[in-house]
Amino acid sequence: MTTFDFGEPDRVPTWLGASPEFINKAISELNLQTEEDLLELFGDDFRRVIAPYSPGNPGGEEGSPFGIPRAGIGYGMATHNPLREAGDDNIREYPWPDPQNIDLSKIRSDAEKYHGQYAILGGDWSPFWHDVTDLFGMENLFIRMLMEPELVAYTFERVVDYYIEVSTRIFEEAADLIDIFFIGNDFGSNTGPLLDVSLFDRFIVPQLERLAGLGHHYGLKVMLHCCGGFRELIPSMIDAGLDGLHAIQPSCRGMDIGELKKEFGGSIVFNGCIDSNFVLIQGTPDSVRQVTERTIDIMKPGGGFIAGASHDYLLEETPVENVHAMFETIKSYGKY
User: Fold this and answer.
1) What is the largest CA-CA distance in the chain?
2) What is the DSSP string of 156-212?
3) In the prediction, which pLDDT does 75 show?
4) What are the b/e assignments for 269-292, b being 16+ CB within 10 Å?
5) Does residue 195 sit within a domain?
6) How far apart are CA 42 and CA 66, in angstroms?
7) What CATH code is carried by the domain that includes residue 246?
């Protein structure tokens, strides 16, 4: 939390985000027993608590609360866009999900396990950008942003209404045990933002402001996961009230970490920054150590930096020895 207040703590905080496949592989290769053993070995300073969808929720446990059918690897892709041809009346009559369909029974006990020892992440993931994209279809959504802006704005509002209510229920139950409201929406690609600043400010910023305001109302920091290159959008994200950005990908256009630190380092926390696309997958333990040290040199001064991979889903093909080398280097080199 010192880092989120742009102070310099005793050391750089550490973040592990990994796919279940990588976690299982690492547990096996490192002769560990549980995921918690792995988090402790790597020195992860965060723990996340989740209120899952109840079994009766539309879309099922693996689907979307908005009733969007999915297929493919992992979370998959939408196989149908329910609002592709919808007009205003169709959208108003759509069967929007019930915020009561989340299970709060373990949220408090899960948070109590780690309270005071780790920074606790909580609240709903709230991927409203992806939900609206799946409801309309991406190309169709972009066209409607220009042709039917009020209809699109209303849809974003309805989707975020659900997430506001869900996270409010979570925070009413356990906000005193949670430190960070962690949300996720990917607005960037390898070559830059998926939408320009004017569209982002028109449709996205009002919803980020609502979510950030909710977290701040409960005394929480608010951190956004956002993939890709989105440098042009960062000023708007700061103005919307976000406290942190995860997980900065230096391989994408505009995401040079030195420039980001210089321009925004006193205004928003940067989480990640150590390349997972090429360095961690294709490198060696020695090259990983070199990149990790160089990243820490750039990002550490003045606080506001959490060290970890540049994506929150280390893939199974990532060598465990490279990830281990990254965390050992953060631990030994990241002292203030």
Assistant:
1) 60
2) HHHHHHHHHHHHHHHHHHHGGG--EEEEE---EETTEESS-HHHIIIIIHHHHHHHH
3) 78
4) bbbbbbbbbebbeebebeebbebb
5) yes
6) 36
7) 3.20.20.210
Domain that holds residue 121: 3-47+100-125+163-333
Domain count of the fold of the chain: 1
Coil, strand or helix at 297: helix
Cα–Cα distance measured from residue 181 to residue 215, given in angstroms and rounded to the nearest whole number? 6
Q: Is residue 53 part of a domain?
A: no
Selection from 332, 327, 329 nearest residue 26 by Cα: 327
Residue 56, pLDDT score? 56
Give the Cα separation of 200 and 187 in Å (integer).
9
- How far apart, in whole angstroms, are the C-alpha atoms of residue 117 and residue 336? 20
State residue 58's pLDDT score: 46
**The pTM is what?**
0.96
Query: How is the beta sheet containing 269-274 ordered, strand by strand?
Result: 46-48, 119-122, 180-184, 221-225, 244-248, 269-274, 305-309
Look up residue 285 and give its two tokens.
């333990």
Q: What is the pLDDT of residue 53?
A: 78
pLDDT value of residue 73: 82
Distance CA 327, CA 335 (A): 13
In a domain, 94, yes or no: no
State the pLDDT at residue 57: 44
Q: What is the pLDDT of residues 128-185, one digit of tens each?
A: 999 999 999 999 999 999 999 999 999 999 999 999 999 999 999 999 999 999 999 9
Sites in the chain below the pLDDT cut of 50: 57-62
CA distances from 220 to 98, 103, 302 (A): 25, 21, 21
User: What is the chain's length?
Assistant: 336
Spacing of C-alpha 58 from chain mean position: 23
In a domain, 132, yes or no: no
Residues 6+ apart with CB under 8 A from 198: none
The Cβ-side half-sphere exposure at 34, using a 13 Å CA radius, reads: 3
